Amino acid sequence: MRVWTTASVGTLLTAWAAAAHAAQTTDTYTARINIQTTCAITVSDLDFGNVGVISTHTAAATVGINCSLGTAYSLSFSNTLAVTNYTGAMTNGPNSVAYSAALGSAGGIGPGTTSIMGLILPQPTPPTGLYTDNRTVYLNY
């Protein structure tokens, strides 16, 4: 009867592994990513806050533009024209508050940030309540 020692088992396993891997071949591969031009936009609310009597009020909203580095973009309040300012009305039922807004920048090279500046001029104060106007900022790239 043969007695196997740790050394003889190790020698046997080494010989078996060498026989099992007597040949070897290789192949190469490429790791890759294709970055495509894209942009995303985030806009905070243009919030004039709480007021009692309407006098002159200003507000600002932040526009965040997240584009692939170096991507040229333009901003507009219209999907067909380069509209960078407007006069509108925030409404609550039949009542309204007139205001105007303007983009701080009409475009640039992404990524970037700009603002929307809002202005309410003195006017008759309507009844109490929350007055709103929903608008869209268009990002073209």
Largest sheet: 5 strands, antiparallel
User: Given the helix and strand composition, which structural class is it?
Assistant: mainly beta
**CATH topology label:** Immunoglobulin-like
Number of domains: 1
| Beta strands, count | 8
- Helix content range of the residues, please? 10-25%
**Global morphology:** elongated
Distance between the termini: 83 Å
As a whole number of angstroms, the C-alpha radius of gyration is 33 Å
Q: Treating each run of at least 4 consecutive H or I residues as one helix, how many helices?
A: 1
The percentage of residues in β strands lies in 35-45%
Low-confidence stretches: none
Task: Report mean pLDDT, rounded to a whole number.
Answer: 90
CATH architecture: Sandwich
For the record, the CATH class is Mainly Beta
Order of helices and strands: HEEEEEEEE
Largest beta sheet: what is the strand line-up? Answer: 1-2-7-5-4
Structure commentary:
This protein is mainly beta. The chain has a single domain, classed as Immunoglobulin-like (Sandwich). The protein contains one helix and eight strands; from the N terminus they run αββββββββ. The strands form two sheets. Strands 1-2-7-5-4 form a five-stranded antiparallel beta sheet, with no helix packed on it. Strands 6-3-8 form a three-stranded antiparallel beta sheet, with no helix packed on it.
Write a concise synopsis of the structure shown.
The chain has 141 residues and is mainly β. Helices cover 11% and strands 38% of the residues.
